[in-house]
Design brief:
The chain is elongated and about 50 Å long. By secondary structure, it is mostly helical. It is built from 7 helices and no strands. α3 packs antiparallel against α4.
Amino acid sequence: MNSCPPRSPQPHSPQPRSLRHVAGTLALLTALAAGPAGAQDLGAYRTLAQSLDAASQVRPASAERALGQLDRADTAYAQLAPTLRNRQLAGGLQDTLGRARGALARTPAELQAQVLLARGLMRKALSDQTLTLLAEAPGGSAAQVRLLGREFGLGGAAQAALAADAGAGRPER
């Protein structure tokens, strides 16, 4: 049995407050590094897309070259991931990249299927974030709108119409 008197509660030390301050500062810096709200790292997006497409194209001739392209895709994903708002899409894309590696040991068609799935998830994330960005700041996302148009196969007049509608704040058209 302990005969010491009970200790009175101590006021909070400054350490938890400073930890909260550091955590808040880190969150702010992460948000600032991600750029404008809704904006993706379009360079990383393009590199990821090109790497996945190249892996699928070279796989019938060389699994080793396809693996090199998947390594490049992983590096691009690591750059892109912090700029993806939808964590479920980001997780699904990461899982699909892992399954693409596993598909290298099987048939080129299986790798192609994983690449198509990854590209679909990428387009969904780009589409969602572009629409969100347009809703928040019409006209402030011209690069994303152009990339979105290309990703969905728009060219010429259709691409120009998409850009004009997005710039005018009418993305629903």
